[in-house]
Write the structure tokens for this entry.
Amino acid sequence: METRPPLPPFTQETAIQKVRLAEDGWNTRDAAKVALAYTLDTKWRNRAEFANNRAEAQAFLDRKWKKELEYRLIKELWVYDSNRIAVRYAYEWHDDAGNWFRSYGNENWEFEASGLMQRRYACINDMPIKESDRKFHWPLGRRPDDHPGLSELGL
């Protein structure tokens, strides 16, 4: 059986670790790698799109990162309880025409005992921004440990 520590039930420390690991994974923009954090029968709602298993989640992520170029994400723990975590997040990206956006959202996550995510419900809003208004300036990939989080950035 696959496991993905930290495992539930979560403490504040392990919930924060889980959130950062998810952020780090998504910032790789490697759909195949990211999909491994989800159960084979994972259920997602992302905006108006639904995924009903890991393969559909991976296909969704492939499409997402082909559209959302130079994607950089920050997640922050909102609340946790036992095997559930709620996060808020923001990410910046541009489309193929060079239009920049900051997307804000909230996610509710539910984990199996193995630490794999079984359910993911996301609500997201896109806000057009000028390139000069960007706040996420690290090189593509993992956010550096010394880069401010959402609260420090006033988001």
About this structure: The helical segments are 12-28, 31-35, 54-67. The chain is about 25% helix and 40% strand.
